Amino acid sequence: MRRDVKVKMDLEAVGPARLTLSLAPAGGAPADERISVRQGDDEVLLREVDDLHGGRLHVCEVDTGPVRIEYSATVIGDRTAPVCEPIDEIRYLRPSRYCESDVLRPIAIAEFGGIEGEALLAAVSSWVGVNIAYLPGSSLPTDGAVRTLLSRQGVCRDFAHLVVAFLRALDVPARVVSVYAPGLAPMDFHAVAEAAVDGAWHVVDATARAPRGTLLRIATGRDAADTAFLASRGEQVRLDRLEVTAVADELPDDDMRRLAVLH
Known about the structure:
Structural class: alpha+beta
Number of helices: 5
Number of domains: 2
Distance between the termini: 12 Å
Helix content: 10-25%
Strand content: 35-45%
C-alpha cells in the first residue's frame, strides 16, 4: 500500500517560543519526506528527537510573528508494528490524565465483565461507538474519558480516551495513537486506541470513520498529552490554519469485529 500525507499549518507566535511537532510517521524517515518551518524568508533550523515506539518529533525555536509549517511524505508498504514489551504492560495499565480508568472501573465491570480477548475489544468499541455521538467542536482540550462518558459526545480523541479507560479498567493494557487516516472525512489528524491481546497490539477505532488497514502511525502514548501534533513552550502560539491530507492507493474493507494491527 502507498500512502501520501501532507500537512500545512499557519501559526502566530506572540513572542519567542519552542515548538515540538509530531507530524512524521513513526518507524524511520520515509524515502520521500520534506519538512519546512519558515518565518518570512528565513528557514527555521529543526532538530529531530526520538519519541517512544519509533515516534519522531521535530523541535525548533521561533521568534515573534507568523510561522508557516509544511510537511509531506510518501510511505510505501507496511511499517513495523511495535511489540508489547513488559514495561508496556505496566505503563499502559495505569490511569492517566485523560484516561481515568480507576474512576470508570465499576462501569467497565458492569458493562463488560466476563468478556475477554478479541470479543472484549469488539464489545468496548461497539459500546462507545453506539453510545457516544461524534460531534465536532463538542469537547474541550481538557476533557477526559469521564467527561466524555457523562456528556455522551466528543471527537476522535474522546472516543479513544474512553475506549482506553474502559480497557485499562478491565486489566487490558491500552494506549492512544495519533495517525494519518486515509478515507477519513472530513480530513484531519485522527486518534485511535491500541490494546494488547495475547502479547500483540491491536488497533481499536470506535469512530469507524476510516479503514483501520490504511492508518499510518505518528505518535503513541498514554493519552492525548503524549500524542499532540503541536506543543509549544515559551510565549503563546496561536494556530490560525491547519490542512491535513492523507490518501492511499486503496481503501480496503474493514470488519470491525475482527482484530487489526496498526503499522
